[in-house]
Amino acid sequence: MPILDHKKLVDTYPVLTLRGLVAFPGMILTVDIGRPKSIKAVNTAVETDMPIYAVTQRDISVEKPNERDVYPVGCLCKVKQVLKVGNEVKVMLQGISRAKHSSFFDNGVYYISKVEELSDSEIKNRPVYIETLARRIHNEFLRYTEVSPAMPPDMVKTVLSNMNVSFLGDYIAFNINAPFDDKQYILEQLSPISRAKIVLELLSKEREICKIDNKIVEATRRNIDENQKEYYLKEQMRVISDELYGDDSADEINNYFDSVEKLNADEAVKDKIITEINKLAKMPQGSHEGTVVRGWIDLCLSLPWNNLTDTKVDIKNAEKILDRDFYGMQKVKDRIYEMLSVYALSPDITGQIICLVGPPGVGKTSIGKSIAECMGRKFQRISLGGMHDEAEIRGHRKTYIGSMCGRVINAIKLSETSNPLILFDEIDKLASDYKGDPASALLEVLDPEQNCKFCDNFLEIPYDLSKAVFITTANSVDTIPEPLLDRMELIELDGYTREEKFNIAKKHLLKKQISRHALNGKICRITDGALYGVIDYYTREAGVRKLERTIASLCAKVAKKIASKEETSVTVKESDLTELLGKHKYKPEVILSNDEVGIINGLAWTRVGGEIMQLEVAVLDGSGKVELTGNLGDVMKESARAAVTFVRANARKYGIDPDFYKNRDIHIHATESAVPKDGPSAGVTITTALVSALTGREVKRDIAMTGEITIRGRVLPIGGLKEKAMAAYTGGVKTVFIPKDNIPDIDDVDKTVRDNLVFVPVSYVEDVISGALVPCEITENSQFCTNGIGNNKSERVCK
After folding, report:
1. Rounded mean pLDDT of 475-497?
2. CA angle, corner 667, sides to 663 and 675, nearest 5?
3. Rounded to the nearest 5°, which phi and psi values hold at 392?
4. Taking the C-alpha atoms of 443, 444, 448 and 453 in order, what is their torsion angle to the nearest 10 degrees?
5. What is the C-alpha to C-alpha distance for residues 334 and 328, in angstroms, rounded to an integer?
6. Calpha distance 684→765 (Å, rounded)
7. Residues carrying an active site annotation
8. What is the rounded distance in angstroms from the CA atom of residue 711 to the CA atom of residue 720?
9. For 351-406, what is the HEC assignment?
10. Would you give the DSSP letter of residue 239?
11. Count of CB atoms within 10 A of residue 346's CB?
12. Measured between alpha carbons, how far is 763 from 217 in angstroms, rounded to an integer?
């Protein structure tokens, strides 16, 4: 060990505080330092060619240590080499002697301390004892090297070739992998014999630690595959858990068992879950099967099983909720009240599955939410639009990686109760392919005789769905499979009329959008005329989604004016709509300004409501051809042919040339050719227009009609009277001819429409013709009232 000239030493030295390291006399220590005071202390020691006092911190996290934060004994060291690396300095120190400080303070640049050198105490033991102690150190060190990884051969050679117990104590303590506080304890011992004994104990302890660590590593290596080295750390954690607990149970497994005990499920279900937990405990941590089993257990523990929500149905409260959320729709509300009444009298009843059918935007999904509120049940919605995989309903089998439960079981899990209200949205848009047919999978879900033991492919345990309430929605029943349709009761929601849209907009949509745009009724007001204008000229839909977006656009424009301080309050009138929303996008159908020959007002039903459909008939010289134009469907073409047959059979009765079908061409045209048209309800309209064109009698401008016709002239019932009557009313019609069998449907017509229209029920088309055409008197000089049609000219007097 190199000895410095003690005459050059002084009592006060710069201090280097070490973190996690201990310097020993005679040992070479390399330290990376980055703290400015430590760097200054090293530089001072180099510049003045004096030793530096290296002392270890008690807590390595302390950035600015004081005297209480360092151990009382350190080591005087000589700075052998200094290398700057970036912002840090790498320093090589050589220990000189043990030392202790009597003071420790900061001079503003670096730490300094008054240091007293310490010498080893005298060895008074016999030489044979010292030799025995050295040999024991050699043997214990060799046993340590057998289990310690990467022990350098030079270090082993140095130890075995030296019999100096003082050197052996410091050398071994400095070089072995031991906690720094154990090393510090050895540094503080001034007796070489005491140091040697402590080193023996330290070697024994570290050897046992290395053996346990090697056992963990070896067990880990046996449990992982060469291609799964990424799971190495996880396996180490598992083996550590094995060492701590003495078995295969870890916290996760114990938590699973505790959760099963708290689960409100049948014993058979609990036994199945416990079996899977025991299987999971024996699986490797990173196995794919273990991941699937863990997901299965988590699902089972998160399902509500026998947990039920307390439900109480109050019909009076249900009426308040539905009246609050929806305007009109009285028939739909009445059917919902009937369903709720049954649940109020018999809460455990099953099998009531309703299907809300109607065009988009009329509130089918919202009705489902309101029914759940009325029943006091939690609500979950499952969208079926575009679903084409059976596994979406039944779940995936556990044999597949990434398998999961179906949407039905997932909805139960999310609702946290076994009796929620589940809404299957857009059930008419289910698809099917090679992956299966979801519609077929829904048969079990919606069948009250089967869903009490619904078996999800992933869950594999029958689950009782009979306590849940199911509601479905659809835009059309045409694409719903018959077996599925047979399990549901249909409730049809018609498109909103003009008056209904106005009331919905005024009572619900306007308030909602004003609030959403941070406005209020004082600074933003939209008049009734403006709302009617938006409905008539900027929207054409069965529901109110576009109407709401248009109102939102108006509110946004009002908000802009107020935010820019152009105005303090805005009132939107009908005359302002063109400026705010642009030119009119739609033009409402209106009646003609004069009575015309061969032009008549028909009534049509569309998904967005009723419309006036004007039909035109022209009679031309020709060879008896009948031309049908206007994008007509097959059923409507058949109605036109039936009308021509009726007119031919009754030509003399109406003063028409019986041979018109031979020498006249007839062209029947429905306006708005771009819009497809079909259905039988235009039969009476086509017949009346034919008679008008062939006789030259004008059609009254303020009448409209609807009804299917037979070749014998009978008028058969039609659908959509509510929407058709609204279209007639808004178009300026005064009188509407309807089939007599449709009289009960007049009750469904809006009261405002009923008060302003005259409904004329008819059973035969003759009644329509006589009431719709301007009367005409035939003179004695003519056989037929042909208005120039045929060989005989006639004179007519129209009243």
Report:
1. 85
2. 165
3. -65, -30
4. 180
5. 11
6. 6
7. 681, 724
8. 23
9. CCCEEEECCCCCCHHHHHHHHHHHHCCCEEEEECCCCCCCHHHHCCCCCCCCCCCC
10. H
11. 9
12. 96
Q: Could you tell me if 100 and 29 are in contact, meaning their C-beta atoms sit under 8 angstroms apart?
A: no
d(CA 368, CA 425): 10
Helix (H, G, I), strand (E, B) or coil at 294: helix
Model confidence at 375: pLDDT above 80: yes
Q: Which residues contact residue 786 at a Cβ distance below 8 angstroms, ignoring those fewer than 6 apart?
A: 655, 656, 657, 694, 695, 696, 792, 793, 794
Q: Measured between alpha carbons, how far is 168 from 22 in angstroms, rounded to an integer?
A: 16
Looking up tokens 């701590």, which residue turns up? 244
Q: Is 126 exposed, middle or buried (0-12, 13-18, 19+ CB in 10 A)?
A: exposed
307 near 418, Cβ under 8 Å? Answer: yes
Q: What is the percentage of the chain residues whose pLDDT exceeds 70?
A: 91
CA distance 516 to 796: 66
Examine the pLDDT at 421 and tell me if it is beyond 90. Answer: yes
- List, in sequence order, the alpha helices (H) in 660-750: 660-663, 683-695, 721-730
Q: What is the DSSP letter of 121?
A: P
Q: Determine the angle formed by the axes of helices 251-262 and 267-281, rounding to 10 degrees.
A: 180
What does the alpha-carbon distance between residue 98 and residue 25 come to, in Å, rounded to a whole number? 6
pTM of the model: 0.60
Give per-residue burial for 485-515: e unless 16+ CB within 10 Å, then b: bebbeebebbbbbbbbbbebbeebbbeebbe
Task: Kindly indicate the confidence band of residue 739, based on its pLDDT and cuts at 50, 70 and 90.
Answer: very high
CA distances 762 to 117, 721, 748, Å, are 127, 14, 19
Write out pLDDT tens, residues 33-83. 888 889 999 999 999 889 999 999 998 888 888 888 899 999 999 999 999
* pLDDT above 50 for 770: yes
469 neighbors 421 (Cβ within 8 angstroms): yes
Please state, in angstroms and rounded to a whole number, the distance separating the CA atoms of residues 349 and 353: 11
Please give the mean pLDDT across all residues of the chain: 85
pLDDT at 224 over 80: no
Tens of pLDDT, residues 185-194: 989 899 898 8
CA 616 vs. chain centroid, Å, equals: 52
Looking at residue 223, its pLDDT comes to: 65
Percent of the chain whose pLDDT exceeds 90: 35
Q: Is the dihedral of CA 343, 345, 347, 348 positive or negative?
A: negative
For 26, what's the count of Cα atoms within 13 Å in the CB-facing half-sphere? Answer: 12
How many angstroms separate the CA atoms of 677 and 605, rounded? 10
Helices 251-262, 288-302: crossing angle, 10 deg rounding = 30
Name residue 188's amino acid: E
Q: What is the DSSP letter of 773?
A: B
Tell me if 699 sits within 8 A of 600, measured CB to CB.
Answer: yes
Residue 298's nearest CA partner among 142, 475, 138, 458 is: 458
Cross-strand partners of 357:
474, 492
User: CB of 96 within 8 A of CB of 13?
Assistant: no
Is 398 buried (19+), middle (13-18) or exposed (0-12) by CB count in 10 A? middle
